[in-house]
Amino acid sequence: DEAVFLRKKITLLRAFSLLIGSMVGSGIFISPKGVLKNSGSVGFSLVVWFACGILSMFGALCYAELGTRITKSGGHYIYILETLGPLPGFLFLWAEFFAIRPANSAVVSLAFGRYMLEPFFAPCAAPVPAVKLVSLLGYYTVLTLNSWSVTWSARLQTALSFVKLLALALIIVPGMMLLAQGHTKNFHDAFDRQSLVLDKLPLAFYAGMFAYSGWFQASFVREELVRPERNIPLAVIVSVITVIVGYMLTNVSYYTVLGTQDVLASPAVAVSFVQRAFKSLISVVPILVALSCFGTMNGGIFTFSRTLFVASREGQWPPLFSMIHIRRHTPLPAVMLMFPLVTAMVCIGDIYHLLNFFSFSRWLFIGLATLGLIVHRHRHPELHSPFKVPLFVPVSFTIICLFTVAMSFYSDPVNISIGCTMVLSGFPVYYLIIHRQMSNHLLWIKLSSFFSHSDYLTHKLQLLLEVVQQEVKTY
Fold first, then answer.
1. Coil, strand, or helix at residue 339?
2. Which of 22, 73, 165, 459 is deepest in the core (most CB within 10 A)?
3. CB neighbour list of residue 152: distance below 8 Å, 6 or more residues apart
């Protein structure tokens, strides 16, 4: 009885919660080990954490400006598509679907499973099959919720954001208390240059940037934001500053209580911290950490489904995935599409190999998106943007991203080569299917119409899922 389209239900508070909930997840609880391992010392690892925070702020400011210039949802994909063209846009979509997003979701899901089970098996490690089973159950729960209701997904994200900040506080407070009492022995000789290996630094940055990743999530749901030209910059700035302060204090607390060897040996740093510093909360903090990961899974599904939705609407993905449930007003097909790939990666993957595997592709395309901002400014100097950052911000961010991507080939050539191959494999697909269809605009319109309305399988899936095309333009 009413028009079917994605409603504007994301207020400033929900945008802030989405960003906090996406950034504060598994990263701060698993990445300290990766940052320390690849930076070599406590001091250099803290420098990496702070540098990653500043770099994230630069990227977030660039995306805030892109979000006020380009009014469509879709995040990285739509920014690359609109500024650099259809080929880079499709290559990002290809890598995002087959490598970046499923690997990222698998990492967060595995962290959720590990922390959820850790209190029940301590001091022993939780069995790997049990971790993977719980990880999948958590992921499927979030998948179901996002298919059911946008409102309830947003409410869950808001509630879990407060849980995440509470989890950080329970780590920061005892650590700061011990530091104030003079427990500084783990910071002696903090900048030991003998253990610093320069070609490993890109992997340290990948681990740190993974912990901060999520600052771009508001751009994925731009069409569903209330007053986006005001709320995107405001939510981005406040949330990133909050997370930088929280992460620095959390890492100082870790190192106050745990030595470098303890951090490197721990499969779950937050659990090891609580075992050493705050035994009365031994069963509470891991559960809070697991809920933090749960919120990150929720935010990831919520935003990536919009990328597939927009890509389908732009003609670079099958038409079924730009359809919306007639009663729930959720992009149901796009939400459900990640189910098989994430399941496979959780079953066969390891957290740290997956982390390096998807980080190469992610930061390559984020660098290209901010390069696109520079190109867009040059092409459209007449375009008024309500939010504008100084030019050195996108220039420096782009250079650092692309330099780190290039350096990572020396640091982890196997996983990075796999990620590169995944990106390059999109070339033949684009030229054989997408480019050929879009070069003949009339043919593409006919094909889109055919696949949307006449194709037998698409029609049956529409009936099964109860979905139709969006009826109201929201951008």
1. helix
2. 22
3. 145
